[in-house]
Amino acid sequence: MKELAHNIFIETDYPGVTLGAINWKHSMVLIDAPLRLEDIRAWRSTLLNLGAGSERLLINLDAHYDRTVGARSMDCTIIGHEKMASVFHNRPITFKSQSTEIGALSELYDSIGSIRWAPPDITFSKEMQLNDENASIILEYRPGNASGSIWVRMPEEKIVFVGDSVVVNQPPFLAFSNISTWVETLQQLLLPEYREYIIVSGRGGIIRQEQVKKQIEWLTRVEQKLNDLASAQGTADDTEKMIPLLLREYNQNIPELPMFKRRLKFGLNQYFTRNYSQPNG
Fold first, then answer.
1. Per residue in 204-214, pLDDT tens?
2. What is the distance of C-alpha 41 from the center of its chain?
3. Is the pTM of this model over 0.90?
4. CATH superfamily to which 2-163+198-203 belongs
5. Angle between helices 209-231 and 179-187 (to 10 degrees)
């Protein structure tokens, strides 16, 4: 666990997403949850050792499986965007490990078993603020990478958690995104006001603005390839041919590579079908 500022921590050692913890005087504010039950137990034990208050809030940065599978077991009041809540309404009531093929880390662990989803207890539309004495946490709707995606910003400490808006050393999730909006959102991180900020990726921990620029370039390249395919009267199945080129910049000798291929196959197919395919009839 790494302390970014006084009583503000991140944890990157568990499989899944980057976790956050803000230890206020009377409460603990958590960002996302571990995947596996053994990691949830370990994380909760770590939080107790910080001397956290009895009140705990859990913020989910979006509805992705990897950050919400363990939310119920954290036994917290959950906060998320209103569009995130609608995602849960369209899912099966329970999640079974390895039942999806979207390229999520949660697909790799049989030990997760069957769990019941935990939709947010508190939702907001554009912005929400939490306060504790002289500190504040601002939850901001930042669309693009997923339905109901948000950032969590601490203006006094100049720290921002951006979730899967930026991921490092792995391809991002495209299936439920809007690339043009996503790029516009990422451009905000390049503004002068964020130059002094610590930026925390949902997969990779602390990142630099150079990595934000790299994400923008990658997404722009993907959108251009999809536009070219649509102009050539291609189909969603044809998007699979893009995968080798899009994966070329990632390490080809890592065990996660098959998962990354599934992620891109599903994401490109779904994105093309939703945005370019003509309805029948």
1. 899 999 999 99
2. 22
3. yes
4. Ribonuclease Z/Hydroxyacylglutathione hydrolase-like (3.60.15.10)
5. 160
